[in-house]
Amino acid sequence: MLTAVYATLYALSVGLTGLLCVLSQLPSPANSSRKYRFNVLILSTLITEFPQVFLFFKFLILYFATKVGVFELAYSNWLYRLDIVVFLTIWGLFLQCYFARYVVEEQTKVFRAADSHDPPGFFHLGYWFRLLNPFWSARNVMVHPDIVYASEEELKQAGPAAEPYMSLDVHIHPSYPRHRPVLIFIHGGSWSMGDKTISPPFISYLALKRWVVVSVNYRLSPHAKYPDHLIDVKRAIRWVRQNIGRYGGDPNFVALAGNSAGGHLAAMAAMTQNDPFYQPGFESVDTSVQACVGINAVLDLTNHKRYWRHKFQDWFAKQILGKEEGFTPNEEFLKLSSPVILLKQMEAERRRSNAASLGEKVTAADTKEEGSKMPKAVNGTEQLPPFLLFHGRADILVPFRSVRDFVQSYKKISKEPICYVEFPNANHMYDILSAPRAHYMAYGIERFLGRMYERHIGDRHIKKD
Q1: Within 13 Å of residue 165, how many CA atoms lie on the same side as its CB?
Q2: Does the structure show a pLDDT above 80 at 449?
Q3: Is 260 a catalytic residue?
Q4: What is d(CA 80, CA 326) in angstroms, rounded to the nearest whole number?
Q5: Strand order through the sheet with 167-172
Q6: Active-site residue identified among 173, 229, 264, 428
Q7: CA nearest 355: which of 341, 369, 337?
Q8: Which residues pair with 332 in a beta bridge?
Q9: Alpha-carbon distance 84 to 441, whole Å?
């Protein structure tokens, strides 16, 4: 009788792990709710980002099942075979996590800085100790928390409850010298949730590698309506330009990074630098940045190529923009808020300029394609910063093809470097916890941004000479 109970528990463990494996590989139905997609995302993250934990418990369960005689029962043969299939699937997920190292190394090898390091090998004990704690952060990194970046007048206009949302944390290593490069991190959360205290591993890693990392909060929907989120990010950049020197940072080199919705805000801030429309009351402040990192970033709010299986554009217009009439009446503004559409508008503007220089007639169709209401800062490609983009091919929330579209458009119009790292079988949340891909991504970010900072230092010396 007791053996039958153990066999039932064993069958339950096989079924649950098998179900997680299936969920991690299947796309969500087109008519699924946002809550369903979010729950599936969390469950699939467990198996795709922490397969080493499942493998460890699989060994324990198999050992225990053998000891109590589960495999001596009549129906245990098929159950054992099914468990072997599940075990091999999890082993495949583990290998994909580990070989993400080579994906990062291959895509970022041309950006290797002089003082950058290689990702840890398979037998690096420190690497495995970091993986034991899903919420790992470096102990020897000092955090200056809850610094308000908004002015008193801006706080008064936003309301008394807005102060925690208009604040930032500064992460530094106290032993490094001054004039260190600065990275501003913008958290994700569908523009409606999240917090600066949710720190991906790369924040600690970069702080250990001489960077000053600023983690930013911003006002969230439904209390804030877009572009309030972006305006708050610009205010944070203003604070960094004016105050980061007190924390050892170099205000002349500021990079942006963001994941998911934060990736959208980072890309928009990088592409609309010094645009008065997004800088009400501080139009004269320099909000330019020297590089931008997008992690699973939302780069298209219009779904113009129908990569989203659901009507994301209507959801954004109603829930984030605050327009009950939906997408269609607000299509023009959402185009101006989509980084990939801004690139296509720049490309159309370049074609128009080339046609005009050759004496060709510019048709009304060309004008319509280009759009007549572009923000001032995106009229030229010379202000585009270098981009580093990461994305998971199994992302069920943000289609990876929209990021590929951005990369292709960027390469057509800009001479600045762009690097795209695409992780096979990675979902939307691989960067949040202390998992293999998150740590390998940290090495890639340090390598790319280190090269951009070297280039910045070299350009500054040339200008002095």
Answers
A1: 22
A2: yes
A3: yes
A4: 52
A5: 142-148, 167-172, 212-216, 180-186, 249-259, 291-295, 387-392, 418-423
A6: 428
A7: 369
A8: none
A9: 31
Task: Report how far residue 49's alpha carbon sits from residue 42's, in angstroms, rounded to the nearest whole number.
Answer: 10
Which residues are CB-neighbours of 465 under 8 A, at least 6 positions away? none
Domain 120-464 has CATH 3.40.50.1820: yes
Known catalytic residue at 428: yes
Domain positions in the chain: 2-108, 120-464
Longest dimension (CA), the chain: 90
Question: Is position 395 annotated as part of the catalytic site?
Answer: yes
Catalytic residue among 190, 260, 338, 409: 260
| pLDDT tens profile 110-144 | 888 766 677 777 777 778 888 888 888 888 899 99
pLDDT score, position 130: 84
Cα separations (Å) of 308 from 9, 295, 396?
39, 18, 9
What is the model's pTM?
0.90
Report the candidate in 217, 233, 225, 219 with the shortest Cα–Cα distance to residue 159.
219
Closest among 153, 180, 154 to 246, alpha carbons compared: 180
Distance of CA 141 to the CA centre of its chain: 22
Active-site annotation holder among 228, 395, 405, 431: 395
**Where are the extended beta strands (E) located within 269-332?**
291-295
